[in-house]
Amino acid sequence: MEKVRRMAVSLPAGLAEEFEKAIRKRAYSNRSKAVADVFREHLSGLEWQGGRGNVVGTITLLYDHHTRGVTDKLTEMQHDFGGAILSSLHVHLDHDNCLEVIVAKGNAKRIEKLANSLISARGVKSGKLVCSRTG
Ligand code: NI
Question: 119 and 62 in one domain?
């Protein structure tokens, strides 16, 4: 078994309460495992940032396709990064909203740049890049 170290931390009461609620919802059997998972997730997020090495990642976008030009703009950006994009999935969620998930691979800085330009495009309501380091 991995060696463990006890840590005491102080959190704002509201945040601690939110955390307890979230781990109950996810049916965590113990709080230490939940904290360790949050640490790991955060650290792996930090690890690939900063532009060094290669990553594989997903970029999730939610947008209103009625916003003038948004669909063309997003497609154009993806063509400009053609070599980096492995696959994409488009779901027509409802009358207004589209969900797009793009799988991309390459230099961390380049993938981050691609994600930032897609996420900040006019009409995109929310977006997120999730990456794992590949080398
Ligand atoms: Ni659509």
Answer: yes
> If you measure from the C-alpha of residue 85 to the centroid of ligand 1, how many angstroms do you get, rounded to a whole number?
19
3-class DSSP state of 109: helix
How crowded is the C-beta side of 84, counted as CA atoms within 13 Å? 24
Q: Is residue 86 domain-shared with residue 124, that is, in the same domain? A: yes
Please report whether residue 7 resides in a domain.
Answer: no
pTM: 0.70
Q: Taking all residues of the chain, what is their mean pLDDT, rounded to a whole number?
A: 90
| pLDDT tens profile 18-66 | 999 989 888 888 888 888 888 887 777 666 666 678 999 999 999 999 9
How many angstroms separate the alpha carbon of residue 56 from the centre of ligand 1?
A: 24
The Å distance, Cα 125 to ligand 1 centre, comes to 14
Number of separate domains in the chain:
2
